[in-house]
Amino acid sequence: MLTRTQDAAADATVGLGQRILQLVWRRRDEAGRAELERVVGEASDEQSEAYTTAVLSRLLKRALQDDPELSKELSAMLPVTAAGTVTITAAGERSIAAQHIGTAIIGDGHTPPQP
Q: DSSP strand E in 12-58: where?
C-alpha cells in the first residue's frame, strides 16, 4: 500500500512537471523552444539530481521573468489546498511527521523524559 501511494505521488509530481514544461514550451517562439529542449535534454543527462533541479529552476525562473502572464497560468495548474488544510508526510523506517510536536523519540532503548 505504501509503495503504491509513493508511486502515485511520484507520478503526480512528474506529470505536473511535464505539464509545466509543456506550458513554457508552448509560450515560446521557435528559437526559445529549441533552447528549452537543449537545456532540458542536458539537465536530464546529468547524474546529479541537485544539478538537474537547479538548472530547471533557473529555466523556470527566467521564463517567469520573461512572461508575466505565465505566472497566472502556472498558478491555475497547481492544486488548490482547502483553507486550513495541512498535509504532512513522512516516509521511511521510523519516520515521524506532525504539525506540532513536543518530544519525539525514535529508536530503541530510550526512556521517555519525566515531567
A: none
Q: What is the pLDDT of residue 30?
A: 92
Q: How many angstroms separate the CA atoms of 21 and 78, rounded?
A: 13
Task: List the grid coordinates of 102.
Answer: 513536543
Q: Of 50, 25, 55, which Cα lies nearest the Cα of 37?
A: 25
Cα separation of 95 and 76, whole Å?
33
Distance CA 12, CA 14 (A): 6
Helical ranges in 1-115 per DSSP H:
2-26, 30-45, 49-66, 68-77
- Decide: pTM greater than 0.90: no
Contacts of 81 (CB under 8 A, 6+ apart): 87
Nearest-5° angle of CA 64, CA 70, CA 16?
95
pLDDT, tens digit (0-9, with 9 covering 90-100), for 40-99: 888 878 778 888 888 888 888 888 888 888 888 888 887 776 666 777 787 777 777 777
Q: How far apart are CA 101 and CA 98, in angstroms?
A: 6
As a whole number of angstroms, the distance between CA 102 and CA 1 comes to 29
